Amino acid sequence: FGFQGCMRGCSSSEPPVLINFSMFNQPKYKAQAASKFFYNGMTMRPPIPGTIARGHLHEDLVLTTGMDPDGKPVAASPVAVDDALLARGSERYGIYCMPCHDERGEGKGILSQRAKVPTANLHDQRIRDLPDGAIFDTIPNGKGLMASYRYPVGAHDRWAIIAYVRDLQKKNVDQE
Question: pLDDT averaged over the chain?
């Protein structure tokens, strides 16, 4: 037992034993660095044409865009509305929509109260008459002073929010 092993970083009177020299000191390119190897001089390689990132294959364009094949907004949501979808829509609405549109959807949220940001009343006939696909398109792209929620609100959550807003609108009509 004359040899004692030592891991990187521990002290030893024996010289270090490196099994794989390239493990700690390997040639590599860093992001945005120049390269003499590649014809365009860039180390970062562009993706192969037609490459789709994992989780981004959109086979059902109506579900992911809210538009029909002709590019027109779909009239009704392609997602079946149930209690779970409405609960998810309520939760997402509370996070992303309520600060401006308030809990009833009347456009009197905290931003309207404190910063006087004009906000759409979701019970206006103009919005009631919009096809679901048009509302779906507004969430990721924004409209007027409304910012884009493309990245924080995914496609399924957009449909959930729309189902919840339609439920709010229906309850508002029932109360009148």
Answer: 87
Contact 78, 160 (CB under 8 A): no
Cα gap 86→103, rounded to integer Å: 14
Cα torsion 76, 79, 80, 81 to 10°: value is: -80
Q: Where are the beta strands (DSSP E) in 49-132?
A: none
* Each residue's pLDDT tens digit, 108-133: 999 888 988 889 999 999 999 999 99
Render pLDDT for 35-60 as a digit per residue (tens, 0 to 9): 888 888 988 888 888 888 887 777 88
Q: If you ran DSSP here, which 8-state letter would residue 80 be given? A: P
pLDDT band at 89 (very low <50, low <70, confident <90, very high): very high
165 φ/ψ angles, rounded to the nearest 5 degrees: -65, -45
What is the rounded distance in angstroms from the CA atom of residue 63 to the CA atom of residue 102? 27
Q: What is the rounded CA–CA span in Å between residue 38 and residue 36?
A: 6
Instruction: Render the burial of 53-92: b for 16+ CB within 10 Å, e for the rest.
Output: eeeeeeeeeebbbbbeeeeebbeebebebeeebbebbbeb
Q: Which tokens in the block code for residue 52?
A: 């789709």
Answer for the pair 88, 157: CB distance below 8 angstroms, yes or no.
yes
- 95 DSSP 8-state letter: I
